[in-house]
């Protein structure tokens, strides 16, 4: 059984926006997602083998080398056989609705994406939106993934990094796809922290992150861009210098 973590980068469709410009404060992407198209997408697929442990695969797609319809079909295919869980950060409010809309717009077959949408959201659901989990299904204000990761010592995109749309305008589709790759790993590590805390098992984070680091280090020629994830942080403590009342000694962690 596999877990698939998904993230999209998008770009606005100028023709649609010209016909239907945002009004007032409606310029926010979260409101006007229907005016966007897929620029790039990444999916981290993780499977557990009883003998080999965790097996990682990274898939990334961009409009630089394939059509939007094919990107949708590729993602839909990854969400097919042997799927245990699809994970996103704000996927219920953005990524999956946009994927389905672009599937319809391109007449691209997407039976698995429609199946995921049709399920009743509950604890056993096949889609886990970590933003939903953290905000009690939107009851709390919505933080960015990078902000949540910073609180847990999880690497993420830096706000000083170029925006994905900048790479599109520069015709740097490889960079646009890499933008998504960082987010899917950050999201997977965030879920690893949540599950480990719920099961009171700190070693689950250490073992999972170590397996991820070994996978990246074993293929440095292809995965060098992900080196930020090979350095395991000090678990159980706030980021260095970030504790308002000082860092808590690791010995006080009660796991």
From TrEMBL:
Q: Where is the Predicted 3'-5' exonuclease PolB-like domain?
A: 35-229
Q: Where are the transmembrane segments?
A: none
Question: InterPro entries per the record?
Answer: 3'-5'_exonuclease_PolB-like, RNaseH-like_sf, RNaseH_sf
Q: What is this protein called?
A: Predicted 3'-5' exonuclease PolB-like domain-containing protein
Alphabetical list of Pfam families matching this protein: DNA_pol_B_exo2
Coiled-coil residues: none
Q: Which GO terms describe its molecular function?
A: nucleic acid binding
């Amino acid at each position: 059984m596999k877990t698939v973590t998904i993230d999209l980068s998008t770009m606005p469709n100028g023709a649609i926006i010209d016909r239907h410009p945002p009004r007032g404060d409606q310029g926010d992407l979260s409101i006007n997602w229907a005016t966007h198209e897929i620029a790039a997408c990444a999916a981290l697929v993780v499977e557990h083998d009883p003998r080999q442990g965790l097996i990682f695969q990274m898939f990334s797609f961009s409009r630089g080398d394939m059509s939007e319809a094919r990107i949708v079909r590729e993602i839909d295919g990854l969400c097919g056989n042997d799927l245990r869980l699809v994970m996103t950060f704000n996927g219920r409010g953005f990524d999956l609705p946009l994927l389905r809309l672009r599937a319809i717009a391109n007449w691209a077959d997407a039976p698995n994406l429609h199946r995921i949408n049709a399920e009743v959201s509950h604890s056993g659901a096949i889609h886990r939106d970590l933003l939903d989990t953290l905000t009690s299904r939107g009851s709390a204000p919505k933080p960015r993934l990078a902000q949540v990761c910073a609180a847990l010592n999880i690497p993420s995109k830096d706000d000083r990094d170029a925006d994905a749309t900048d790479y599109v305008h520069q015709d740097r589709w490889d960079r646009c796809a890499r933008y998504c790759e960082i987010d899917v790993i950050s999201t997977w590590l965030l879920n690893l922290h949540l599950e480990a805390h719920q099961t009171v098992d700190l070693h689950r984070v250490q073992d999972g992150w170590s397996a991820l680091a070994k996978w990246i280090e074993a293929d440095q020629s292809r995965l060098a861009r992900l080196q930020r994830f090979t350095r395991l942080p000090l678990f159980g403590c706030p980021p260095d210098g970030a504790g308002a009342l000082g860092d808590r000694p690791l010995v006080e962690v009660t796991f």
